[in-house]
Amino acid sequence: MPETVEFPQSLWAATAPERPLSPPLQGSAETDIVIIGAGFTGLSAAIEAARDRRSVTVLEGKAVGWGASGRNNGQVIPILTSAEPDAWVSRYGDAGRRMVDLIGHSADTLFDLVREFDMQAEAEQSGWFQPAHSPGRVKLSQKRVEAWQRYGFPAELKDAAETADLLGSDFWYGGMYNRTGGHINPLALARAMARAAEGLGAVIHEATPATAYRRDGAEWVIETPDGIVRARALILASNAYTGELKPRLAPRIARSVVPVLSWQMSTPPVSDNLRTTLLPGRQAVSDTRGDLRFFRYDARNRLITGGAVMGSHDVANRVRAKAARNLAEAFPDLGMSEMTHVWSGYIGMNRDRFPRVHRLGPDGWAWIGCNGRGVALGTALGRELARAALGWPEAELALPLTEPQPFPLHAIVRRVAPTYLAWLKRQDLREPDL
Q1: What is the pLDDT of residues 18-37, one digit of tens each?
Q2: Which has fewest Cβ within 10 Å: 290, 356, 404, 412?
Q3: pLDDT at 235
Q4: What is the separation, in whole angstroms, between the first and last Cα of the chain?
Q5: Helix or strand or coil: residue 343?
Q6: What is the rounded CA–CA span in Å between residue 129 and residue 266?
Q7: DSSP state letters, 40-96
């Protein structure tokens, strides 16, 4: 049995409470619900199913939080990157309306879970802010605020003066604020969710990649390198990493998204004097650019930021320098920060940035396509997928079902995907056509 699984050299790996690796699956097991993937979705689903007194087995190919759930920036954001509430309803009707409710409540769902189980995850429900990087983007922010308000959610429009007070900088023009958002230490949260699930009776097998699944009569059969699990219901919760460990596990689903590297990094702790003026309310911030600028504090007052660059040469150093320049441009008093930790992980991007929910078969479910919004969304969808596996009526669930739509020539699309950044940067220079 492996004693450790190597994690990226992230700030989260350096600060999250330790978790001993659980034993890999050996031999045969039977369970009510089997979950593939021990990230936010899988662990949220395990908690929800186990609290209903069902037997739950979680299969994780590496370790709890090893994938995107333990590598991201930790921003808890209660909206998506592009899919607006009216579009969900227009596309999916009643199921879309329920999805809007799920998304709008997703940050509260996560923070309520943290409070219920007293999870030690550096959780701060301090709000989330999307500042507009141009005057035209303020109009876009206003449209988004009005759209979410129509569905009853606490979106607010901030003007330029309010934005300057909130951020400690006049670099932006206004923007959309939602008080339910915030931030967490994502690896600490994943490990705390695992402890909560195990405390409710769920069984987690780490270093246990699922190699295949199939329907056999009234059961799902999941194969692993050294064992087999039989279950009444199956939840596939591997998202952007669906095709990374075992490419043949669910190839049509894996090829329906493009895994794109997202780079994260942290500054040294900001001085107390500067902390009182730079982002004094400690909100999570990600602006309206396609070439996104994003940042927030961690529990030690480090700024957690990141970025993207094109090409494969010396990427870590180039993205480190770019992120430092971006911070210095917005906050001149900060200067060019050194970055103490730099790490990366995949996010799952698709054509229209709508997350997809799929039925694998009777009592079999999956979702994919976080598009950079997986922290709150993955946690909320995990609970919803568990309810589907528990037999809740489909008409009560926020699961707008579709068939997988694999990218043609997926391998080529994946190689050229980083060049999409050039198009995003050009779009950032244009005002939106509203």
Answers
A1: 999 999 999 999 999 999 99
A2: 412
A3: 98
A4: 57
A5: strand
A6: 19
A7: HHHHHHHHHHHHTT--EEEE-SS-TT-SGGGTS--EE-SS-SS--HHHHHHHHTHHH
In the chain the domains, ranked by start, together with CATH numbers, are 11-72+187-257+351-408 (3.50.50.60)
Q: CB pairs under 8 A, 24+ apart, for 228-232?
A: 228/27, 228/28, 228/29, 229/25, 229/28, 229/29, 229/30, 229/31, 229/34, 229/57, 229/59, 230/28, 230/29, 230/30, 230/31, 231/30, 231/31, 231/32, 231/33, 231/34, 231/57, 232/32, 232/33, 232/363
Tens-place pLDDT, residues 358-377: 999 999 999 999 999 999 99
Tokens of 23: 């034993």
Structure tokens at 212: 């295949």
Residue-wise over 398-434: b if at least 16 C-beta within 10 A, else e? bbbeeebeebeebeeebeeebebbeeeeeebeeeeee
Residue 312: the pLDDT is: 86
- CA 372 vs. chain centroid, Å, equals 6
| Contact status, residue 185 vs residue 122, Cβ threshold 8 Å | yes
Distance CA 98, CA 290 (A): 28
157 CB-side CA count, 13 A: 15
Look at the block and give the residue holding tokens 């992980």.
Answer: 345
Q: Which two tokens stand for residue 200?
A: 């409710």
- Taken in order 380, 198, 72, 127, the sign of the CA dihedral is positive
